[in-house]
Design brief:
It contains eight helices and two strands, in the order αββααααααα. The radius of gyration is 21 Å and the shape is globular. The protein starts with a helix and ends with a helix.
Length: 222
Amino acid sequence: MKQTYTKKIALLALMTALIIIFCFVPITFGTISLALMILPVLIVAQVEDFTTTTILSFIMGIINYIAWFTTKAASPLAPVFQNFCVCVVSRTMIGVVAWLVRYWLQRLLDHYSVEGAKRIAADQAVYFTSAALGTITNTLFVGLFTILFFNNKELSNGTAINIEYILAWFSLNFVIEFITFAIITPPIVFALKKAHLVEDKKVDKKAILESQDIENTAQVSE
């Protein structure tokens, strides 16, 4: 138990460090900025419990929130992301949705007893779907809160915020992030599990059956 707890803390520390680096040293391609800071959250959502994933998501939101008051404060979009809901709540929901999608899809695989090579391929599909929907969640919540709090308001560069602006703003970035995170998350998770850097959360059915047999035997003895 102590070893598991230590690994969990170490993983959180590593992922938090990556979030800080990706947040304050953004990866840009021309006018396109890739939000790599959400990648650690998508990875943790595949290998850790709900609480750990939610905590890391919230930490990511707070770090990004701080960035919009410091290194990104000069951006015309700063007033938008200095809103707590736009920046922190939206980021937190990434981990929540990604974890729930992964959890229920893997329970479905357990229910139908998918094992062996089929299970490895199925798990990769689960990670892909979880990362994809987590990325979509970020875009949807940021867009929703932006319209809710800033509709018809003007940015410092004179641009008016409306639905058309939101769609144009997110369209290219969203497509690139959706494809990137959905594709690179599964192999990273697979590599972490292969190297035993994270625990495999699959249910040990044999252990469960043995436990049930012991309980049944005890009841008969009584």
